[in-house]
Amino acid sequence: MVPWFLEPVLIAGWTLVFFILAGTQRRAVVGNLRAMFPEWGKPRAILGAWRVFWNFAVTFVDGLRCETATGGVDWAVEGLAHMQDLSNRHEGCIILTAHMGNYDIAAPMFANRFNRTLHAVRAPEREPNAQRVREEEMRRREQRHPNFRTLWNRGENLLGIELAKVLAGGGIVAVQGDRVIFDISPMMVEVEPVEVEPGLRMRLPKGPLFLARATGAPCFPLFITRDGWRRYRVTVHPPLDLPPRRRGDEEEVAKTWAAAVFNTARRHWNQWFVFEPLLTRSASPGK
Known about the structure:
The protein has 287 residues and is α/β, with parallel strands linked by helices.
């Protein structure tokens, strides 16, 4: 690790290199931002994409420092009453989160606050070698945090059965509601935030919503954002009001689910680390 005063300079330099080379990911972020903010022109969206890449690099380095015990981060909790509610329930619960902040260091640490095991669902890495490294990293974290477990979404139908068993046994399952990669089945959902004009649709994975609907488990939206240099905030919301599954009402329920993710992503757009095209708008944003 380098001295702290060189860290910002090196992060900015390496971020610029990846920003230039990762054309597909850069264009996806620009497209998401222009759909999210139709009043933005292309130059502003490109600058916004740079901020997303930079924040991602900062959180990645923070995770490395925590993993190697060469530094730490400070935490604040917003919605402590809802976190206490989640902790005190005896039934299985679902945590709905998004690819924001630094869930890699938050999930194992906050798992110790619960009286039961937290099972975090992760997508595997694209490269086999990177996946082996990631699995070894997760094993080390599980050894340090006995209440934390990782489950890999490899596109197998058996994962849903395993997650349902975890919830039936009173465990906690944490799922990301904004990752549509590999062979994960997507759904297109219209999002209707009050402050945004209509016509915005969001591409989301079906699995997390279907799990919540099939099991009836309470679902707590929980998001992690970066407040400043090595400072993070965990925001816990009250459980979503999702009625039991009935034929014909899937669209309205999906809108509630999507809004829980989108509203936070829009508020903290520069920390929404989704590098795939998820947002489309019926009318093209202005030039």
